[in-house]
Write a structure and sequence with these properties.
single chain, 186 residues, mainly alpha, Arc Repressor Mutant, subunit A, 2 domains, two-stranded antiparallel ribbon, two-stranded antiparallel sheet, 8 helices
């Protein structure tokens, strides 16, 4: 007999669907976001443990057997028995809407509304730091840390590595009495 190895996320997903939703996948573990959900579903589909029917992911008989859960009892008279195709489509639409609502509840709205800003050389953190260093008044390490979110040792390392060694920039510093050290590009 062959045993199927499941990742913890795959196991949690199958177990929840088998125990709570009659085999329909409506819930995902918190650690599965975006593309990771698709990858897990694709892997389970390749193993024959889930199938996508009318955009609804559900467990196969093999998944119920693997999880040690009895198959859900089939409805002796399905709701759509003897009904028109329009009623069937309406029922499927309602099901899709409920699945979409579950997904929207689990995905923050910001992921739908704001595409991430692509980094270019002009708006990179390195470019921001160089702009701060080129100001006539110069800049302090604290100001750079606030602008970039870096820690002070990262700023100092960037000065020594990327700016001085790789880019060949001449960075000078001066310290006024009682103040912070000011850095400038010479």
């Amino acid at each position: 007999m062959t045993t199927t190895q499941l990742s913890p996320s795959q196991h949690a997903l199958l177990d929840h669907a088998a125990q709570h939703t009659g085999g329909i996948i409506e819930w995902f573990p918190d650690n599965l976001k975006g593309g990771a959900r698709s990858k897990v579903l694709e892997a389970l589909e390749k193993r024959g443990l889930v199938e996508n029917t009318h955009n609804v992911w559900q467990l196969t008989d093999a998944a119920f057997e693997l999880m040690g859960t009895p198959l859900p009892e089939p409805d002796p008279q399905p709701e759509h028995f003897g009904t028109s195709p329009e009623k069937i489509n309406e029922a499927l639409s309602d099901q899709l809407v409920s699945v979409a609502q579950v997904i929207c509840q689990q995905t923050p709205p910001s992921e739908f509304t704001e595409p991430p800003v692509k980094r270019t050389r002009a708006n990179s953190k390195q470019a921001q730091v160089i702009a701060l260093l080129q100001r006539p008044e110069g800049t302090t390490i604290t100001q750079i840390c606030e602008a970039t979110g870096w820690q002070s040792h990262t700023v100092r390392g960037t000065f020594a590595g990327a700016f001085k060694k790789k880019l060949g920039l001449d960075i000078t510093s001066s310290k006024e009495a009682g103040g912070e050290r000011i850095y400038r590009i010479a």
